[in-house]
Design goal:
The complex is a heterodimer of chains A (403) and B (261).
Chain A (H helix, E strand, L loop, with lengths): L1 E5 L11 H4 L14 H20 L4 E4 L13 H11 L4 E4 L11 H13 L4 E4 L5 H7 L7 H17 L4 E4 L4 E5 L13 E5 L3 H9 L3 E5 L3 H19 L8 E9 L3 H19 L4 H4 L7 H5 L8 H8 L3 H6 L3 E4 L1 H15 L3 E5 L7 H19 L22
Parallel strand pairs in A: 1-2, 1-11, 2-3, 3-4, 4-7, 7-8, 8-9, 9-10, 9-11
Antiparallel strand pairs in A: 5-6
Helix pairs in contact in A: 2-15, 3-4, 4-6, 7-8, 14-15
Chain B lengths: L3 E7 L4 E9 L3 E5 L10 H6 L4 E5 L16 H14 L6 E5 L1 H12 L7 E4 L19 H8 L6 H7 L5 H22 L18 E6 L7 H10 L4 E5 L5 H4 L1 H12 L1
Parallel strand pairs in B: 3-4, 3-5, 5-6, 6-7, 7-8
Antiparallel strand pairs in B: 1-2, 2-4
The chains are: A alpha/beta (403), B alpha/beta (261).
Chain lengths: 403, 261
């Protein structure tokens, strides 16, 4: 079992009435709400928290990419990853990831990931998300109708740039390069492990399964609702005739550990509420540009995590409901252990990512959550999948077969 | 009136365009926009009394297929040139609303000899930083209704906004709507300024620009901009919002007919 510490880097200082006064935390959230001085402190706290996670034993540190938003202050996860390569020495650096379609040429991703892999001594996990509609279609203006085609082509270019021994020409529809020849090349061979974060699109399940990558579901609806998505992925794997190695899957879960169940509510309730009511407050019009999801996925009725429907569900939530419905696994160590084991086994997940800094949670509390998780929970969920080999983990990172 | 329908195959079947047809007289081709459902607005019943009206559904919309083979506005324009040829139309009049107005104008600009007269209803395709066209591709239902109609409480607006009763039909309608918007958004995302401003001077067909006097989506200042760029173009203002063809179908039909002759 691999356990990673995931950070979204949310802006913690949105006004109390944010979700009633402003229509969206993403795309057109006004920067009159943003304070650069405070954000200077935030970035450094967030990086401290990630570095602390390595010290207390997490296997990997996860960062990701978002734009135009107060939900996560990481337009460039590679910058965060770069600082981590220098301040850590054991944990895998899991960049989840670079939204391939947004880079022109996408070779930039091949280059930067290669740099991170080399600087970190081969500890990089390369994440390739399609990207949310808010990020890709609205913040970056990419056409929803061709986003996926652009993504697939960019992926092909990056993989070829990493693996083909010769200088070659790439004649794509979206990118034409006469001389592909990136320096440096990644340290891991044939290339860093590839993880694909998805939101439940059918094509992504099939494609990820076919290419033998890790599929990651980054769920805010928790493991109970996440099960339908993970089942979809495991069905795709079965159809393909591939083995059911749990390390093919990754899953993000929000977790709050305290001394007791009651103390967990006192410690974390307000911060969890901040996350669900403010950080996920996306205006319906920005939730999904027409064409972002394919016809096949629409017809399959996969529900989105944001937008009007999701908003209605979110607004009805309180601490008890977050817990009952599995959005958050919270409580004393015993409660958390038990539910987390259930989550891991139900979803068949070999790469667990936990979100321990949630919403407005300040640094001291995040460190408390992280330390309690590392000492009281992690040791009990480590050995869930004996007998399976993790082929999707950097060999030289903690827990890797060359570490 | 129930128009006849046929599917025209182009490019060895890579494109299959559904075309609705009714009426008699000189051919008139009508290109629809984002929020025309079904492809045959009441306006066309009236026009069909004087013209043979052809109303193609854009590729990707309501049974027309092959939009994924088209990359940009020029691709779409050439595909429609091929459609006109396949329909045996040498020099039809063209009419279109918003997105469809852009398509009609592109045909007239790229292939000036192809078009008889050109009647554009609040065409899309120019961009003024100070007055951005409404982002109607993404507006949620209620906000959309308020943006599209001069009187959002009018019967036409209410009828247009009514959802099907059954859950099943509702889901199907939503999927149809997403597909329809997506098929056209493909050509104009994220800003509809795709180069027509460099081509409008080529238009030689007599051109009328017809605008709803309360168009909040594509304000009349755009009409003035189009008029400035197309030699001899005249502007007609009618009572209505962005959906003027649904709000005042009789007046729109009369104005178009008087112009086309």
């Amino acid at each position: 079992m691999k356990i990673c510490f995931f950070h979204l880097m949310p802006y913690r200082f949105l006004p109390d009435d944010f979700e009633t006064r402003y229509r969206s935390v993403w795309v057109d959230v006004p920067h009159s709400l943003y304070d650069a001085e405070k954000t200077h402190g935030l970035y450094n706290e967030f990086l401290d928290e990630l570095e602390f996670a390595e010290q207390v034993g997490f296997d990997g540190l996860c960062v990701n990419e978002h734009h135009n938003n107060a939900y996560g202050l990481m337009p460039s996860p590679n910058l965060m990853a770069a600082t981590l390569t220098r301040r850590t020495s054991k944990a895998a650096i899991v960049v989840l990831g670079n939204s391939l379609a947004a880079y022109n040429p996408p070779l930039r991703v091949a280059e930067e990931f290669a740099m991170l892999d080399v600087i970190s001594g081969g500890r990089l996990v390369a994440g390739f998300p399609v990207g949310t509609s808010m990020d890709m279609n609205f913040a970056y203006g990419i056409n929803p109708a061709t986003l996926r085609e652009r993504y697939f082509e960019a992926h092909d270019l990056v993989m070829q740039a990493w693996t083909r021994p010769e200088v070659f020409a790439f004649n794509g529809k979206y990118t034409q390069v006469r001389y592909v020849n990136i320096w440096p090349q990644p340290l891991q061979k044939p290339h860093p492990p590839v993880w694909v974060p998805g939101g439940g699109s059918l094509e992504t399940w099939e494609w990820t399964a076919r290419l033998d990558y890790v599929y990651c579901y980054l769920s805010y609806f928790g493991y109970k609702r996440g099960k339908a998505t993970m089942d979809g992925f495991w069905n795709a794997i079965e159809k393909l005739g591939a083995d059911d190695n749990p390390y093919r899957a990754g899953f993000l879960q929000l977790v709050c550990v305290s001394e007791t169940d009651e103390q967990a509510e006192r410690d974390y309730s307000a911060h969890v509420h901040y996350f669900y009511q403010k950080c996920l407050n996306v205006w319906e019009g920005f939730a999904e540009a027409p064409g972002y999801r394919t016809l096949k996925t629409l017809q399959a009725g996969v529900q989105a995590q944001i937008g009007a429907q999701a908003r209605k569900i979110r607004q009805s939530l309180d601490w008890q409901k977050y817990l009952e419905q599995g959005y958050v696994i919270a409580g004393g160590p015993e409660t958390v252990r038990e539910q987390l084991l259930h989550c891991i086994k139900t979803l068949r997940v070999g790469h667990l990512m936990v979100l321990l800094q949630i919403g407005s949670m300040p640094k001291e509390l995040t460190l408390k959550n992280t330390e309690l998780f590392a000492t009281k929970v992690m040791p009990h969920v480590r050995d869930v999948w004996p007998g399976y080999t993790d082929r999707w983990w950097p060999a030289r990172a903690r827990g890797g077969n060359g570490a | 009136m129930t128009p006849a329908q046929r599917t025209v195959e182009l490019r060895g079947g890579a494109l299959r365009i559904r075309v609705l047809t009714a009426g008699g007289g000189r051919p008139l081709v009508y290109f629809h926009s984002f929020h025309d459902r079904g492809g045959w607005p009441a306006l066309l019943d009236r026009l069909a009394e004087r013209y043979t009206v052809y109303a193609p559904l854009h590729p990707g919309v309501a049974g027309s297929e092959g939009v994924e083979t088209l990359d940009d506005v020029l691709d779409l324009t050439l595909a429609y040139d091929e459609l006109l040829t396949a329909l045996g139309l040498a020099q039809p009049h063209l009419c279109g609303h918003f997105f469809g107005g852009m398509v009609a104008a592109e045909l007239a600009a790229v292939l000036p000899g192809r078009v008889g007269r050109l009647a554009l209803i609040a065409p899309l395709g120019l961009w003024l930083d100070a007055v951005p066209t409404g982002d109607v591709i993404i507006l949620p239902r209620e906000e959309l209704r308020a943006a599209l109609w001069k009187d959002p409480e009018s019967e036409a607006a209410r009828r247009w906004a009514t959802l099907p009763e059954s859950e099943e039909e509702n889901v199907a309608a939503q999927i149809e709507s997403i597909q329809r918007l997506s098929a056209m958004a493909r050509f104009v995302w994220p800003i509809p300024d795709k180069g027509i401003k460099k081509r409008l001077h080529r238009i030689s067909a007599p051109t009328m620009l017809l605008w709803g006097d309360a168009d909040r989506v594509n304000p009349i200042v755009y009409g003035e901009e189009w008029q400035r760029r197309i030699k001899g173009a005249e502007v007609r203002l009618l009572d209505g919002g962005h959906m003027v063809l649904h709000e005042s179908p009789a007046a729109v039909a009369d104005t178009i007919a008087r112009f086309l002759g």
